Amino acid sequence: MKLSLKITKILLKSGALLFLIPIFLSCDKKMGVIKNSDILLLPTQTVKIFESVLTDSAKLQVILSASLMERYTNSKPPYSEFRKGIKVLFYDGHKIPIASFTSKYAKYLDDQRLWELRDSVVAINEKNERLETELLYWDQDKDRVYTDRAVRITSEDDIVLGIGLESNSRFTNWWILNSKATISI
Questions:
Q1: CA 63 to CA 80: how far, in whole Å?
Q2: Measured between alpha carbons, how far is residue 108 from residues 57, 60, 116, 125, 140 in Å?
Q3: Is the pLDDT of residue 19 over 70?
Q4: Which domains does the chain have, with CATH numbers?
């Protein structure tokens, strides 16, 4: 009986040893995985219900709002992403907005001061002209918006269809690069 008890103890100790060796060896391997993880690809800042108000000489200029903003400052180049859409209202010192941009997705490249608006982009100017497209770039330094995609501009009198557009950022001085049709309403 003492012999079987000794054998049982030896088997238990060697079984425990065989069980623990892979655990210790696997911990070393996991540490390498953690060190080489993609943590730098995660956002450095996440903001829910984001609103930025820009003024000049105490006069309201622009209100930018989004339900989610994620900043990636570890990325080269650094950028902000608005995966749930964005709304930009231009006031230019007036009490009510004179122009607006909305989209279901937006990305802002910090270094270039360039916005990329995607998916159901709509711009409305002070003449109530409405631009619709799937992709629109907004270059803040040049005060310019542009696209090479299909566009539709609806005004009180006409619907203009075309490919490509350039305009100032308030969408008051626009031209379609390749006009396809003008439909009178």
A1: 17
A2: 25, 22, 6, 22, 10
A3: no
A4: 44-184 (2.60.450.10)
